[in-house]
Amino acid sequence: xxxxxxxxxxxxxxxxxxxxxxxxxxxxxxxxxxxxxxxxxxxxxxxxxxxxxxxxxxxxxxxxxxxxxxxxxxxxxxxxxxxxxxxxxxxxxxxxxxxxxxxxxxxxxxxxxxxxxxxxxxxxxxxxxxxxxxxxxxxxxxxxxxxxxxxxxxxxxxxxxxxxxxxxxxxxxxxxxxxxxxxxxxxxxxxxxxxx
Length: 196
Prior knowledge:
single chain, 196 residues, mainly alpha, Rna Polymerase Sigma Factor, Chain: A, Arc Repressor Mutant, subunit A, 0% strand
């Protein structure tokens, strides 16, 4: 349903109604800003990237052919704008040291996460994402928080579906390792306080 609505506004804009663009900006501004923030980790830079992204979207609107969802196209422009910004400013988030994680350990961690309420769990995961490299944090944000399919992510990130699956698997293992290092002290503290 949203695709039809987006296309309606796109048609209005292409026919000269520039005010209709405000509706698309309003609809996608949070998504664009959140993704930019995942890539650059600084609010002011993310706001600048979001503005640049919407300028690019407006200027290339006639190139949108509807072959994918409009949101996928917006993700792709956001991702590329972030990459351009990072290259231009030679920035890369620090990469956390990641130990190898077994499938059993990953499942064990997921069951621990299930015991935490959703809001707290999302906050813990958001904090851990900041320790991942930009592209990996972006990938997990698309997959888990924005519910994008592997196929849509492959279009956004200009990669094959099988490559995205491999990256997703490896990045989930890294996230599990970071979560483990963050949660273990909290869990140990909890059990220690229960014993007293």
